[in-house]
Structure formats: C-alpha cells, structure tokens
Design goal:
There is one protein chain. The protein is of the alpha+beta class. Helix content is about 35%, strand content about 20%. It contains 10 helices and 13 strands. Strands 1, 2, 3, 4 and 5 form a 5-stranded antiparallel beta sheet that branches. Strands 10-9-8-11 form a 4-stranded mixed beta sheet, covered by helices on one side. Strands 6-7 form a two-stranded antiparallel ribbon. It binds a DNA duplex through helix 7, helix 8 and strand 13.
Length: about 325
DNA sequence: TGACGCGCACCAT
DNA sequence: ATGGTGCGCGTCA
C-alpha cells in the first residue's frame, strides 16, 4: 500500500457539494481515505478574474501505481463533468501532491506537485492534517514549509504576447516585476489583482500609468533609487536617451551608469526602462530580450516607432 | 582596490 | 554612414 496526498478544488456550481461528491468517487476507486482537512474558501490564482475556490486536502492509502492513480482521478474529474481548459472555472480539480516519498518528473506527471510549496490552499489544509509529513524534495516538514510560505511575498502573473509576466508584492509595496518566474505565495491580494488588471490593459495597448503603486526600494542603491524615481516620470509614449536621463538624475556624464541601472531594474514596465534609448537613434539593450523592448516601444509609440527608429526593419 | 557594463563623443575609414 | 578607441561613472567582489 502507498501513502498518498491529494488536493481538491472547485470553483463552479455548488463547490462544497462538488468536493463531497469527489470524495465519494475517490473512496470507491480503490483509494482508502485516511484523513480529510476542512474545506476552505480561497481566492483563485492563475486567473484572478474568476470565482473563489473551495479547497481541501486528504491523505489516503492505495495500491494503485502513480499513473493508475492519475488516470483514476482524471476519470473522476471527467465523470463529474469537468471540461478541458487551463485556468478556467472548474467543477472539480484533483491533484496528486505526494505519493510515498517518490520523486517523479515526467511530462505527464510530476510528484511531488511542482508548486504545492507556494500554495496556501494546499499547505494550509495539509498543515492541519499532516504537519509532520516531509517533502522528499526539500526534506522540510509541512509545518516548516507552511511557516516559510506565510512570510513570502505574494506573487501573481499574466500572460502576454511576449511570455508570462510576474509580479511580487509585500507589505503593500511592489517588490519585483519580471518576465522570469518569481517564487512566492500564489495568492491574489487586492494590490496584486489591481496591478495585474492594469498590466493586462497595458499589454492590450491602453495608455496606463503605474505611478500610484509604491515600489520597495530597500534593496536598491541610493543613486539607482533616484534614477528609477526620475525615470518613472517619463510618460507613456515618450522616449529619453541614456545621457539625458543621466542629466535629469544629476550625473551629467553618467550615461553608462544609467545603462547599468537599467540592466538591474527590478521593476520592468513599472519603471519604464524600455523608454530609454541611445542617443544615436538605436535601441540600446534590454536585459529580458531586445524583442521585448521593441514590442513595448511599438505598443506605446504606434507608427511613431518607425520615425524614431528608421533603421529598424522590424 | 580593480574589473565590469543596456553609453557617448571623437576620430578613423 | 559604419567601426574602433578612450573616457567617465557607480556597483559589486
């Protein structure tokens, strides 16, 4: 017999009833449920513009193999009327969190579940029923992971034409934005939701200003802080050269310093380093990829892009 | 201290 | 119009 942990979620119809029905199906599929957590209500993550979720976690024993177990729970999802579609409202969602102590990393199945450490709606209920259980990957106990998660910044993301865009927020301040994955507590606070809403509008080509968000500069050197603050005042749809920005920031010959500061910008988009271009009418660099700088400038400038960068064929 | 970098001006072709 | 060469400026190791 194998010890397994499953996580259940529902955000469509009678959510708590859906979970009860799923428990019924699970317990009649060769899975012996051991402990069940309370069912909690959480805000959705992944797509913030949908209904709250009911979530719960259970421990169980089964003689099924990992793949048989996967097939079984996907069968239950289908039986209960779940339709395909990532990040869409769902009647029921069942995930395998643990399967004994095995570590599995295939296209089809990842065990332990790859992001359970960042999800309060898994760790919270799991902490309730199995705080001493150990994560075979990190070697840490659930209670330790849970405690760590509570002190992590909140994170969220949107999908854009140029890949996912991630944000993290702590103490009401934006800590970081990035085109690269940011680890953190996957929950939508009002600030995260507001920020993602605005980013979505921005990437749709709307003229959006982000200056009402406060940024956490505590890990930023003082001069860079000043540079970023000045740069934030450069409005949507305009550009500025590295040297001109240097002047505005009080370092008349510090164009290259500006380049360094841009390369390390912890807040792409919100601190609009994509608006900073070379004096000779070329683009300059962009740490997350020059295609993205081109994309953002075209988004903001429209046809004027080709006046400013006549040499660029893109 | 010294190397480094999302630039710039100035001079060469 | 391109292509090299110092220069200058803050960071970080």
């Amino acid at each position: 017999m194998h010890d397994v942990v499953l996580a259940l979620g529902s955000n469509k119809g009678d959510k708590k009833e859906n979970i009860k029905r799923a428990l019924y199906f699970i317990s009649h599929s060769g899975i012996r449920i051991h402990k069940v957590s309370k069912t909690i209500i959480t805000s959705p993550w992944g797509n913030w513009q949908q209904a709250d979720f009911a979530n719960m976690v259970l421990t169980a024993k089964t003689s099924l193999s990992p793949y048989e177990l996967l097939k079984t729970i996907k069968g239950i999802e289908r039986t209960m009327g779940r339709t395909e579609g990532h990040m869409k409202p769902r009647i029921i969602d069942i995930d395998i969190i643990f399967f004994d102590n095995i570590i599995l990393n295939t296209e089809e199945l990842e065990i332990p579940h790859p992001s359970f450490r960042e999800r309060i709606f898994v760790l919270g209920p799991l902490f309730e029923i199995a705080p001493h259980l150990k994560d075979p990957v990190s070697g840490k106990s659930i209670s330790q992971l849970y405690k760590e998660l509570l002190s992590m910044p909140y994170v969220g993301h949107i999908e854009t034409e140029k890949g996912s865009f991630f944000v993290s927020v702590k103490n009401g301040m934006v800590l970081k934005t990035s085109f690269d994955y940011i680890r953190g507590r996957q929950e939508y606070t009002p600030i995260i939701a507001n920020l993602l809403d605005r980013l979505k509008m921005y990437f749709n080509g709307e003229k959006v200003d982000f200056n009402d968000f406060s940024l956490d500069f505590s890990n930023v050197p003082p001069l860079y802080r000043k540079i970023y603050t000045v740069l934030r005042k450069i409005p949507y749809g305009t550009t500025i050269s590295y040297s001109h920005l240097a002047e505005l920031a009080g370092i008349p010959k510090g164009a290259r310093t500006i380049g360094n500061a841009m390369a390390k910008n912890p807040f792409p988009i919100l601190v609009p380093c994509h608006r900073v271009i070379r004096k000779d009418g070329t683009l300059g660099g962009f740490s997350s990829g020059i295609e993205r700088k081109i994309f953002l400038l075209k988004l903001e400038l429209g046809d004027r892009f080709f006046d400013i960068f006549p040499k660029n064929i893109h």
